[in-house]
Structures are given as C-alpha cells and as structure tokens.
Fold this sequence. Notes:
By secondary structure, the protein is an all-beta fold. The chain has strands spanning 8-13, 19-24, 29-35, 42-48, 54-60, 68-73, 78-84.
Amino acid sequence: MLTPSERTLVVSLCGSPASLAFVDTVHLTLVGTLQIAGAGTFGDLAVMTAGGRYVYATFDAGTAGTGGVAVVDVHRRKVVASWAYPGTGRPHEIWYSRRKPRL
C-alpha cells in the first residue's frame, strides 16, 4: 500500500512473526520492519485508511490458533491497538470504509 504522498510503501509480510515492511520509494530502500504480533504468527492481509495514517493488518496464528488484527500508526511505525479474532478461527480478508456504520 502506498501512502498518499507515494513516498512510503507499506508491505504485509507473510513470514513469522507477523510483520510489516516500510520501503522508501524515492531511494528504493527498506526503511524498517515492524512486528505486529507474537511468535508463531504469520502476516496476512492489510488495508490502509484513506488518509494514510493507519494500517489495519491481519495476522494468522496457524490452524490451531486464533489470529487477529493489528492497527499500526504509519507515521510512528508503531502498533497502537490489536485484538484477537472473536471466537475461534483465522481472519481472512479485511476492508476499510470511511462510512459510518448503520444502526
């Protein structure tokens, strides 16, 4: 995912532990990586908010575990929230909308 300025590329890494990579698109260099979940997790899918401030990234904890979603502040490159997938199972797919939920 590209930030609105197109200067940073944020990539969800499929390795373990679940992580994101930040790439400087001007110099084509890796700026750094950020672990978004603990040992035994694997990165999966991610989506960026319209303004480029946050990334919502899913992670998988294997067939016997429960995955979740991490919220990453792109400017600070820091996980600001995380929650486990409710119940059992693994998240697969994520979508972001600016619309307010219907009540």
